[in-house]
Amino acid sequence: MTSQFDVNYRRLVTLGDGARVLLRLLTEADRKALLEMYAPTTPDDARYMRQDVRDPKLIESWVDDLDYDRVLPLVAVVGERIVGNSTLHFGTGPTRHAAEVHIFLTKDFRRRGLGVQMIQTLIELARRRGLHYLHGQIVTDQASVIKAFQQMGFQIKCTLDNFFMMPDGDMRDTVLVVFKLMPERNEF
User: What's the CATH number where 124 sits?
Assistant: First the structure.
């Protein structure tokens, strides 16, 4: 359940190159900035996404259907510009103790440490909610993304052969990465 703390969450981070970025939850007021962030998405980037983020109606639906108890969207803001969007998609029923992680950064903010800051923030917010696990699926072509998740403590649990279908019908393997938020009951 979303607390007032989550809704008002703010974290100012400084990247290695000195850029200052505000991390906070997405709000309805972010509609235009979110549309502008996804508008220049290249066909190559779009190939690796589960949804076609180049469709403005999809992005608008994310804002129209904001429900922090279903999906918690964290945005990275520089000035008035959104440069990153990461989300926790909460499980229900038997998976209510876990959330799936998604992240997207604009090209000019990749490989600058922002993704790590955003995922670390999602880890913090997930712990506050009492979640036990975070997980994600990454296409094996994205070796640098897999490596970054591993460096943050995510473990590869399995490879799913031909699990991701590209827009052209080509199949790709994905890895399932998992981050354990809570120690096992027999651990200290």
Answer: 3.40.630.30
Dihedral sign (CA 156, 159, 160, 166): positive
Residue 92 domain flag: yes
- pLDDT tens-digit profile of 126-151? 999 999 999 999 999 999 999 999 99
Tokens 């399932």: give the residue: 176
d(CA 126, CA 178): 13
Range of the domain at 39: 4-180
Nearest to 134 by CA among 161, 109, 103: 103
Q: Kindly give the pairing relationship between strand 98-105 and strand 20-25.
A: unpaired
Instruction: Find out whether 166 and 172 touch, Cβ atoms under 8 Å.
Output: yes
**What is the C-alpha separation between 51 and 107, in angstroms, rounded?**
18
- The domain total for the chain is 1
